[in-house]
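Field reference: sequence -> structure
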Amino acid sequence: MIRFSSEDAKRLIFEAPDTTRRTLFVLLFTFVCLIIHIYCTYLGTANSWTCELDSTDPKHNYVCKELMQKASCSTLTGPLKAEILLNINDEVKASALIVCPWENAISELRICFALGSALVVIIGLLSLSNEDKKLADLHINSAYFFTLLLVISSTFDLFAVSNSNTNNYSLCNLTNEFSVEDGISGEYLSCTHDIYNFTAYLGYVAAVMLLASSYYLKGWRDNLSLDGL
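Structure field:
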């Protein structure tokens, strides 16, 4: 019977041999990395557009409408988070916060790969708890496959961020190509990809940890086989 209770966890942490405990900690750290990876993916799916005016004069409301037509997720390449400050006739200022997400297909694939990897880690934990060599073999063989998928996914994530930097050059550098109309000029702009880069690099970390977990679990399985002789 396959099970994993809190008592099993205590036994593995406090009573198990050093090899088992090291393998357990690697598996748990891998699981935490994957959970954070999934959460960052969720944060990267946010899509928002907010415009604010420093003036209550109704005649300036058109600025937000014009700005949305010029700079919104329909005209920009995600993933991207941008903050724009506009100077209107040297007096009124308008600011806009634009958050454009990953493409849906990229996020969906990343979540599928991360969830599959988390399942592989759970299988590894179950193999430790039940001292099951078949589950250990399943974890080891599956870990190689999902490690490759995580690496591929993170590589394409970095390509997506690079494309966003290139395709949004006019916006992110406030060149003359980016303007709303006469009398309205860009005064400040901040384009960031921090959460998106972090998500991509965390995918690499999770891939390395998943590969390390298979290495440690293989060593544990071999020791288990020797003990059974």
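Note: The beta strands are 48-53, 80-88, 92-100, 184-192.
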